[in-house]
């Protein structure tokens, strides 16, 4: 009896692996549909736009507690600091605000994007440092601190805007594919892929941690994590998830992680920005 | 509770009995002549080693995950000890997409540790 049930579980995972999500030819639109349909079926109680709440979108128990925390959010000082920094005059008299016209209406949802001129994926944090350097200022460290503050401020200005990452042309598709490959590849001594935990096993527990769905992951970054005791960027989290399977992490804003963010954010197309967020 | 009793019934030494009751497993196995069942349990429960509780409910372990099935009635399902050893050594052999880490193939555990874990799991 038991054996049968386990064999069935294995067969289900096997079938999913051969579904369009994992198929050889890469078609972003098909990926998106497969992933959205998969999670809609897996978590029928969760309305589409509620996936922006990460693990809390599927866990009524911890949700109430989390909502109480969000009433006096631990990231509020970060938004204030980000605001200050964003408007602070550079030595040349300009400020970051000059680099990001339209910030007041919300720009977070425009990142990451593929820049055809440079053939690079540009993330918000990368753009912040490009702005600083273009104005003769020193770039910021990428994982935490001031860059996360500015990112938090810009995300806050963008709440409610909808992600719509575009993958157009062969070069953009190559970036997408690289990120997708990272997401699907088993890695590390523990031999686990992002998809193993955040697609196939989402909704189950690793020890005491409920695994969140990948769709809606990026919408609330940067995140104040009690485990960090501070705010951190998406790439900091990527490093942590690589390391917990005993794989080597990549550098924040490396091509590898920008490609991953490009793919990962594409999976959240149609969802709203709700950053910054708080997590345990 | 039933599997617990079962474990007790099949325990091969006093030390193993202490281990399966959750009584100071560290000192039990640190003791001279700790059985392979004891040692296996310790390695299985250690977060930095087997961390089997990360994914499986196991009698005597707190806050188990549920990515994998509960490990119960193992002798019934694995009449052959070697098949159980093989599953722990490299779960991807039976299921290439398995979420279970290939502990032996990836050298996360030594063959001796896997042998001890097998003895322990077989008592469940």
Q: Class of chain B, according to the CATH hierarchy?
A: Mainly Alpha
End-to-end Cα distance of chain A, whole Å, is 38 Å
Helix content of chain A: 40-55%
Greatest interface and its residue counts? Answer: A-B, 24 and 24 residues
Number of separate helices of chain A? 11
Shape of chain A: globular
How would you concisely characterize the structure shown here?
Chain A is mainly alpha-helical. Chain A contains 11 helices and 7 strands.
Written overview of the protein:
The complex is a heterodimer of chains A (280) and B (124). Chain A is mainly alpha-helical. Chain A is 45% helix and 7% strand. A 3-stranded mixed sheet of chain A has the order 6-5-7. In chain A, strands 1-2 form a two-stranded antiparallel sheet. A two-stranded antiparallel sheet of chain A has the order 3-4. Chain A starts with a helix and ends with a strand. With 124 residues, chain B is mostly helical. In chain B, 46% of the residues lie in helices and 0% in strands. Chain B has helices spanning 2-10, 14-20, 25-30, 36-45, 74-77, 81-89, 111-122. Chain B is globular, with a radius of gyration of 13 Å. The relative contact order of chain B is 0.17. Residues 1-31 of chain B have low confidence and may be disordered. The interface between A and B is medium-sized, with 24 and 24 residues.
């Amino acid at each position: 009896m038991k054996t049968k049930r386990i064999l069935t579980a294995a067969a289900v995972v096997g079938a999913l692996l051969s579904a369009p999500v994992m198929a050889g030819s890469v078609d972003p639109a098909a990926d998106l549909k497969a992933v959205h349909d998969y999670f809609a079926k897996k978590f029928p109680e969760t309305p589409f736009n509620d996936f922006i709440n990460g693990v809390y979108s599927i866990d009524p128990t911890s949700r109430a507690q989390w909502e109480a925390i969000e009433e006096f959010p631990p990231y509020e000082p970060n938004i204030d600091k980000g605001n200050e920094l964003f408007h602070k005059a550079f030595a040349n008299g300009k400020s970051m605000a000059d680099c990001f016209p339209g910030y007041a209406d919300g720009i977070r949802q425009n990142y990451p994007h593929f820049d055809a001129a440079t053939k690079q994926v540009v993330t918000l944090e990368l753009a912040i440092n490009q702005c600083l350097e273009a104005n003769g200022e020193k770039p910021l460290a990428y994982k935490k601190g001031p860059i996360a503050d500015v990112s938090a401020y810009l995300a806050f200005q963008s709440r409610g805007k909808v992600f719509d990452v575009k993958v157009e042309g062969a070069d953009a598709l190559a970036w997408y594919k690289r990120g997708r490959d990272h997401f699907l590849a088993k890695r590390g001594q523990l031999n686990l892929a992002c998809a193993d935990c955040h697609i196939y096993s989402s909704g189950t527990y690793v020890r005491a941690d409920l695994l969140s769905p990948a769709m809606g992951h990026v919408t609330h970054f940067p995140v104040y994590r009690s485990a960090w005791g501070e705010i951190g960027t998406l790439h900091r989290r990527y490093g942590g998830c690589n390391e917990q399977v005993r794989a080597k992490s990549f550098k924040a804003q490396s091509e590898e992680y920008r490609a991953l963010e490009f793919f990962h954010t594409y999976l959240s197309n149609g969802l709203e920005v709700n950053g910054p967020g708080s997590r345990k | 509770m039933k599997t617990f009793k079962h474990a007790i019934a099949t325990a091969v030494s006093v030390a193993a009995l202490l281990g399966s009751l959750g009584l100071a497993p560290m000192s039990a196995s640190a003791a001279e002549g700790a059985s392979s069942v004891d040692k296996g349990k310790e390695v299985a429960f250690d977060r930095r080693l087997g961390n089997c509780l990360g994914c499986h409910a196991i009698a005597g372990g707190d806050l188990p995950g549920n990515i994998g099935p509960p490990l119960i009635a193992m002798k019934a399902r694995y009449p052959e000890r070697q098949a159980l050893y093989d599953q722990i050594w490299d779960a991807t052999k039976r299921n290439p997409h398995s979420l279970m880490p290939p502990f032996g193939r990836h050298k996360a555990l030594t063959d001796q540790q896997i042998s001890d874990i097998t003895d322990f799991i077989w008592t469940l």
